[in-house]
Amino acid sequence: MSSNSLLDPALAARMAALELKARAAAEGVLAGIHHSPHRGASIEFAEHKPYTPGDEIKLIDWKLYAKSDRFYIKQFEDETNLRAYLVLDGSGSMAYQGEGRELSKLEYARIAAAALAYLLLGQNDAVSLAVFGAGLRTFLPPRAKFAYLHEILRGLIETRPEPGTDLSRSVYDLLERVSGRGLVFIFSDLLDEPGPMLQALKLLSHRRFEVVLFHILDPDEIEFPFERLTVFEGMEEKIQLLADPRAMREEYRRQIALFLEEVKLVASGHHLDYWLAETQNPVSQTLSGYLAYRASLRRRRTSR
């Protein structure tokens, strides 16, 4: 008897639907960046990486050193030792879905994480899933077998938005469970206390994890397009506010722009990759746009 036959039929159907969406998004990514999925650790889309102390000297590309006067390590197509941690925000604010929007922020994040899991496991990289809210709620250790995709999908599907956000505490919880280095993908609206949250992201970088922030927002949260007298409800706490959005719009937009700029500056200053993901855009467009940017950035670094 297969493990799928033991699942609740509704859960199995939702997992199958998510897998189809993930596969479609992954295929869209590959088409968008014109790369084969069979390049070993091809999520990097690079053939070299800068030498760091501890790397094997025998892997240095001496020809490239002669041209650039910089040390780079050769990346081989059959490398499969990448560990990727997919970190999903399951807080209440992720349930927001603008009027006429196809996906909530959480649904968008699910598909993006599932698509990356599909790509990574397809090239034999190890994938882990972590879900956080007020703390770390779910942790699936990294595995490199493609069959593990079903465990990842189940973890994503079973994630429900719950009140409470504490990314900093969740990062500390995660660091207690991981070892070595790896690639950390964070899917979150980052609606948390900026100070502690940004300090935790810096800590990940200091611990030599490569961090990618997919900042998932509904366009409403950026543009604040509301026109009528509206009752605004808190998604993390039971708070209601009756307000005229037209009187608030200019200051709201100013504050959200300052917040976005602060996150970008911290990311840039600590070598974290930042990518704004608005939920009106197809998931494949978001992922392929980021990966194409990442590839061009690495090519520029290599050519220096």
CATH fold topology: Rossmann fold
What share of the residues does DSSP label as strand, in percent? 15-25%
Number of helices: 9
What is the CATH top level name?
Alpha Beta
Whole-angstrom Rg = 20 Å
CATH superfamily: von Willebrand factor, type A domain
Mean pLDDT: 83
Tell me the layout of helices and strands.
Layout: H1 9-33, E1 48-50, H2 62-68, E2 72-74, E3 83-89, H3 105-122, E4 126-132, E5 136-143, H4 149-157, H5 167-175, E6 183-188, H6 194-206, E7 210-217, H7 219-223, E8 230-233, E9 240-243, H8 245-269, E10 273-278, H9 283-303
Parallel strand pairs: 3-4, 3-6, 6-7, 7-10
Antiparallel strand pairs: 1-2, 4-5, 8-9
Helix pairs in contact: 1-3, 1-4, 1-9, 3-4, 5-6, 6-8
Account of the protein in words:
The protein is α/β, with parallel strands linked by helices. It has one domain: Rossmann fold. Helix content is 43%, strand content 18%. It is built from 9 helices and 10 strands. The strands form 3 sheets. Strands 5-4-3-6-7-10 form a 6-stranded mixed sheet, with helices on both faces. β3, α3 and β4 form a beta-alpha-beta unit. α1 packs across α3 and α3 runs antiparallel to α4. It is globular and about 65 Å long. The protein starts with 8 loop residues before the first helix and ends with a helix. The N terminus is likely disordered.
